[in-house]
Write a structure and sequence with these properties.
Layout lengths: L7 H7 L9 H11 L11 H6 L5 H15 L3 H34 L4 E6 L2 E6 L8 E4 L8 E13 L1 H4 L5 E2 L17 E2 L4 E13 L5 H9 L7 H30 L4 H15 L4 H18 L2 E3 L3 H7 L3 E5 L5 E11 L5 H9 L4 E2 L2 E2 L2 H12 L11 E10 L4 E8 L2 E8 L1 H6 L5 H16 L3 E10 L15 E12 L3 H10 L3 E5 L4 H10 L9 E3 L8 H10 L2 E3 L3 H11 L5 E5 L5 H6 L2 E5 L4 H6 L2 E3 L4 H41 L8 H19 L23 H28 L2 H22 L15 H19 L14 H26 L4
Parallel strand pairs: 9-18, 9-21, 18-20, 19-20, 21-22, 22-23
Antiparallel strand pairs: 1-2, 1-3, 3-7, 4-5, 4-6, 4-7, 8-23, 10-17, 11-12, 13-14, 14-15, 15-16, 16-17
Length: 839
């Protein structure tokens, strides 16, 4: 029999557990036997990871060059070529290992905490430490951590779309089911990966990790890798580079043969030339930069859940943000109370019956504030006794905009409600005088910027199970409570920074319009009451009016989930939007936005639907994430410009020498060394720059913009041309003054120095001497290492390995002039960019 076919007692007996769960000792033993509650998808086997760095065309080309060297009895050249292959492989392995390690550490941050019975008490454990037989407690918005048989269900509804494809939630029960049932019919079971959308429940874990239904699917599906938009753009660019390089290689090969170079030597040189000219390691380097960027953003409290979000967050033009908990601290405090018929203490006693308190903890920040207020009044939380019994909690319902508790006093039931003032007042039986007085007090509180909560109650002879049973115009109005929430520090500065970056911040709140305006005006989101729109009118608007209203509003008040989704749909037509949310009802809007941003303290279903999770729930972290996203994409463009410019320079130098009738300025192993000493070592550090100081002073780029702008393409052309002219000029000069071997050695050194200079000036668009003040330790370490290696090669007997010879002291001046000329050309181009604001 399956667990869904068994009674609760049969399930407990089979799992050797009780209603109070397991002991810590039993749980620890089962964790050792069954392993952690983690789904391990089918990844690449170790042997495939080992051979992956060798399984590409460019490595194959290098192997051919090495084989030709052996055939030609050029053993030193062959050793160098194969050594370069191994160095490249080691670097690739290290990059892959680092990437996987960082991704694993980021994944651990998403590990959910679960309430579980251990040793007869309720404890909180990480979901990966759950074992079979654990009795878990689930609440609205929580992600189901493992497969489990339901023991208790309190109006429990679960979203199982990830397993069944069915978008409607499923109502769950605790009784056994007869006969064979499919997954979507097993209504007394919970499945790992699904979400509680409403209600609460208690369940006993029946399967963990890969033994869950979701785990079995994951094992079959394996691991899929999705590329970010920038990676796709770079891959497309590299394909074009490969085509151009192949055409140039064929041309160079023909020119070599025409010049009388031996076939084998020409072939070996062209193979090395092709490998050096194609930035085949760039996709791996970009992956490393993206992953390191994700780690840096996580350290700044923005946990990126997919690489696609890194690029999109930098393109955002509108941030639609919740007020409570994002712009404010979500540390609510009661400021004032008002009741038309009770004194403050009597009103506080009435309020106490609306509280949701479980195991001494308040259900939400509002209840926490009310408990604190009652403590100041020396009034405690109501306790159940023979006369009074709490029999049902009515969770907050966005349609009715209220929550409540049902109490039984003997044979009579009393329902205590709290919620939006308009909704509560509409259902209350009060005189016109009281209605007018209440509305005046409501507006008075709202103008002060307070969030206002209304309270009411009614008597009934039968138990109430849902809000549709609450009568109209029969409630007894109890009064208002005015709540205030402190603004987060530096939120105004963050909003100003967003505005400077061309990003419009819009506030979405459930508060009254006057309350919303009071807050929005304090943080410079709105400066006119006309910029506040009451979203209750939104659902009835026609398309043309909707577009006009949504576009003009700075603040949307009295927002319900349906309105929030409609606002996002409309904003998406004209903007790249980031939307914040923290609850079950925010999920449609989070998935609708280009970038869904969930709060770290929010519901698991909201975090799962998001692209970025703010670990500190702070609006400022969104702006920081935008900045980091822009820096990462800017650095990737920087890497591209540097690599393509240097590689194009090498190609043009070779072709230029052949076209004007000069001997080749480099031999094959020198070309490979240049590629290793400049491209391989310098490209990733260049992608770790801290970013331009004015990166948030420019509007975002268009989503469909090419990866490289026309200005940056012109930088590539100018840099490569300058590199070619300088190197060939010095090579020609030394050919006329010294031997070919010495001229070749000087050209070899000059080209490397030029590429170092190019790497340094590419670090930013500021004047070059200011770049010394910008910290990037990996860059300076990489530069120092390559300089030490180059000095060792050039000025010790080791130079013979790369066919270099001792060079004339005049070469010092040549190197200095080359470095100065390269710096001057790039600095002039950067000045033009700053002068005319080109990027």
């Amino acid at each position: 029999m399956k667990f869904y076919q068994k009674s609760i007692e049969e399930t407990l007996n089979e799992l050797n557990a009780g209603h109070e769960g397991l002991t810590s000792k039993m749980a620890a033993k089962r964790l050792i036997n069954d392993g952690p509650n983690q789904i391990k998808v089918r990844g690449e086997p170790l042997w495939k990871k080992i051979i992956e760095p060798f399984a590409n065309v460019m490595i194959g080309v290098l192997v051919m060059a090495g084989v030709i060297s052996i055939w030609q009895k050029e053993l030193i050249d062959a050793i160098i070529i194969f050594a370069i292959i191994m160095i490249s492989a080691v670097i690739a392995w290290f990059q892959q290992w680092s990437t996987e390690r960082i991704l694993r550490s980021l994944k651990k941050r998403e590990n959910e905490l679960v309430e579980v019975y251990r040793d007869g008490n309720v404890s909180t454990v990480e979901s990966e430490n759950l074992v079979r037989g654990d009795v878990i407690i689930l609440h609205e918005g929580q992600k189901v951590p493992a497969d489990a048989r339901i023991i208790e269900s309190d109006n429990l509804h679960v979203d199982e779309s990830m397993l069944t494809g069915e978008s409607l939630s499923v109502r769950k029960v605790a009784h056994e089911i007869k006969g064979r049932k499919e997954i979507y019919e097993q209504i007394n079971m919970l499945f790992g990966g699904s979400f509680v959308v409403s209600g609460a429940g208690v369940a006993i874990v029946t399967a963990v990790g890969n033994n869950t239904e979701f785990g079995l699917l994951a094992k079959l599906a394996g691991q899929s890798e999705t590329k970010s938009p920038v990676q796709e753009k770079v891959d497309k660019l590299i394909k074009w580079v490969v085509i151009v390089v192949l055409a140039m290689a064929v041309l160079a090969f023909v020119l070599e043969l025409t010049r009388g170079v031996e076939l084998v030597e020409a072939l070996r040189f062209i193979l090395a030339f092709s490998v050096s000219a194609v930035p085949e390691s760039l996709p791996i380097a970009i992956m490393v930069v993206l992953v390191l960027g994700m780690r840096r953003m996580a350290a700044k409290k923005a946990l990126v859940r997919n690489m696609r979000a890194i690029e999109n967050i930098g393109l955002v033009t509108t941030i639609a943000t919740d007020k409570t908990g994002t712009l404010t601290r979500n540390e609510l405090r009661v400021q004032e109370t008002w009741s038309p018929r009770f004194n403050p203490n009597a009103f506080a006693l009435q309020i106490s019956f609306t509280l949701n308190v479980s195991k001494g903890k308040a259900g939400d920040p509002l209840d926490t504030a009310l408990i604190l207020y009652m403590g100041q009044r020396k009034i405690g939380v109501p306790q159940e006794n023979i006369r009074a019994k709490s029999i049902r909690t009515l969770p907050f319902d966005y349609i009715y905009a209220m929550s409540g508790n049902v109490w039984q006093f003997g044979k009579k039931f009393e329902v205590y409600l709290k919620g939006a003032p308009e909704k509560i007042l509409d259902r209350c039986k009060i005189s016109d005088r009281e209605q007018k007085l209440a509305e005046q007090k409501l507006h008075e509180f709202a103008r002060e910027g307070f969030r206002v909560v209304a309270f009411a109650k009614f008597d009934t002879s039968q138990e109430i199970e849902k809000f549709s049973q609450v009568p109209n115009r029969e409630l007894e109005f109890l009064g208002f409570v005015a709540i205030a929430d402190e603004l987060r520090p530096r939120v105004v500065a963050a909003i100003h920074e967003a505005a400077d970056a061309g990003i419009r911040v819009r506030m979405i709140t459930g508060d009254h319009a006057e309350t919303a305006y009071h807050i929005a005006s304090k943080i410079d989101i709105a400066n006119d009451p006309a910029q506040i729109y009451d979203s209750r009118k939104l659902l009835s608007l026609k398309a043309t009016s909707l577009a006009k209203v949504v576009g003009a509003a700075h603040v949307y008040s009295r927002v319900i989930p349906e309105a929030k989704h409609k606002i996002l749909t409309e904003l998406n037509k004209t903007d790249i939007t980031a939307m914040t949310g923290d609850g079950v009802n925010d999920v449609p809007a989070l998935t609708q936005a280009h970038i869904g941003v969930a709060m770290g303290a929010g519901a698991a279903i909201a975090k799962d639907a998001s692209d970025i999770v703010l670990l500190d729930n702070n609006f400022r972290s969104i702006v920081i994430a935008v900045r980091e996203g822009r820096i990462i994409i800017s650095n990737i463009r920087r890497m591209l410009v540097y690599l393509i410019a240097t590689n194009a320079g090498e190609v043009l130098i070779t072709l230029g020498a052949l076209l004007v009738g000069l001997p080749l300025p480099f031999v094959a192993v020198q070309i490979l060394w240049i590629n290793l000493a400049t491209d391989t070592f310098m490209v990733i550090p260049l992608g770790l720059e801290p970013g331009e100081s004015d990166i948030m002073k420019h509007p975002p780029t268009r989503p469909d913009a090419p990866i490289l702008s026309k200005f940056m393409i012109s930088r590539i052309v100018i840099t490569a041309t300058t590199m070619t002219i300088i190197t060939l000029s010095i090579y020609t000069l030394f050919l006329n003054m010294h031997s070919q071997a010495e001229a070749r050695s000087v050209a070899f050194l000059v080209l490397i120095i030029i590429q170092w200079v190019n790497a340094f000036v590419m670090r930013g668009e500021a004047v070059f001497y200011k770049l010394f003040k910008i910290k990037n330790q990996p860059f300076f370490v990489a530069l120092l290492v390559t300089m030490i290696l180059q000095i060792t090669i050039m000025f010790t007997p080791a130079r013979e390995i790369l066919h270099a010879v001792e060079i004339h002291p005049d070469s010092v001046w040549a190197c200095a002039i080359a470095a100065l000329a390269m710096t001057t050309v790039v600095e002039v181009h950067k000045w033009i960019g700053r002068r005319w604001k080109l990027t």
